[in-house]
Amino acid sequence: MKTYNFTAYLIYLPVVIVLTWYVAHTLFKNSKVFMLEIFHGKEVIATSTNKLFETGFYLLNLGFAFLIMEIASDITDNRSLLELLTAKIGGFCIYLGLMLFFNLYLFFRGKKVSKERARMALIEERLSR
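RESULT FIELD:
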């Protein structure tokens, strides 16, 4: 009996890799602004930190995509292939969206903490005069 399992893998892998690249590219292209603000315009450390976050994002998300890649049963028809792929890719998209929002939360939190520290330093400076 012919199975479509290998075909499923050939479709699944490029889709999750491209999705991960697109989300990471969009997120980290736009997050440099946050990093520059968090690190008070120090471009070298902002860029380096942004790159480290991006690398971690790729490792975490591609690792998860590979982890859930396993197909436990034989896929014997096109309908089963489509249903399995939509469930796997859809689940991965939800996970990727959650990771995107988690990273945005971290960026906004870092921005808030940075502003608070700058404000406290200004208050301390004024009090010490």
